[in-house]
Amino acid sequence: MPFRRGVKQDGKVNGGMPADFKTTDHGLNKLKVATRGGVVFASFDHDIESLEDFLGPVILGYFDRLFDGRELRILGYNRQRIPGNWKLMQENIKDPYHPGLLHTWFVTFGLWRADNKSELKMDARHRHAAMISTRGQSGKADQVTQVSSFKESMELNDPRFLDIVPEPWWGGPTAVMMTLFPSVILQQQVNSVSTRHIQPDGHGSFDFVWTHFGFADDTEEMTQRRLRQANLFGPAGFVSADDGEVIEFSQQGFEQKPFHRTLAELGGRTVEDTDHMVTETLIRGMYQYWREVMEAEA
Ligand SMILES: [Fe+2]
């Protein structure tokens, strides 16, 4: 604080703040902070429940699978502005059937199949979710996918993008995508792990901030593998570039016909955990919670 005690001039003090002024009465906003497994969360709401209660036991279990206390090592950041409503990104990671329809890269190189063993799980209030899938043993996509292979003969110049090495901590699933309401996504797609933070910029746009990480006890080879696989994700990722573009298209669709409504009835009209991917149950769950919160605030 400049000139807090005033300025000494010609033997007297001029100006300054009143003698009883305390900086501690005018501090920065204090946040309620929680840390777990090396991850730091903060909320402006001091009455919010504990992080553990907020996540609930099921989601917490998947959180701890990824952040099990190992020391984390930041590998890099990406930041992009996506011209769409922030909730569209949560929907994206709660929609388990679009990868086979949208992401030709996943399909072409066999990273996604409609018959992957999969589960969708939520917390009791349906605000968070985990999409858990286990890749089959077969390599390239065959006729299981609804999208014919983009180009059968397409090959990677550098096959190391698919140099996938199972890790003991996976404990079965090869990919777990978590959405934490309202603004956090935790990604484990084979050896690529990241956090993604949604930072809204008004209702029609948001910044999407990626933090790619690894673990302090990774070998140099594993670090390089994680970095190579990170090329699938981020603003220009072989896979994630599709999501950013489609969210922009969706927003344009909403804006040109605001009187239209979205239908999310795939897999029924109710909200429940499932053991398959052909459902919008997680999206219905989020909007059920969203309405609950917004009505309480109204
Ligand atoms: Fe996607």
Tell me what you see in this structure.
- The strands form 3 sheets. The chain has a 7-stranded antiparallel beta sheet with strand order 5-11-10-9-8-7-6, with helices on both faces.
- It contains 7 helices and 11 strands.
- The chain is 26% helix and 23% strand.
- Strand 6 and strand 7 form a beta hairpin.
- It is an alpha+beta fold.
- It is globular.
- The protein has one domain: Naphthalene 1,2-dioxygenase Alpha Subunit, Chain A, domain 1 (Alpha-Beta Complex).
- Bound molecules: fe (ii) ion.
- Fe (ii) ion (FE2) binds next to helix 3.
Quick gist of this model?
26% of the residues lie in helices and 23% in strands.
Number of domains: 1
CATH A-level architecture: Alpha-Beta Complex
Question: In percent, how much strand structure appears in the residues?
Answer: 15-25%
The tally of beta strands, per DSSP, is: 11
The average pLDDT score comes to 91
**What bound compounds does this protein have?**
fe (ii) ion
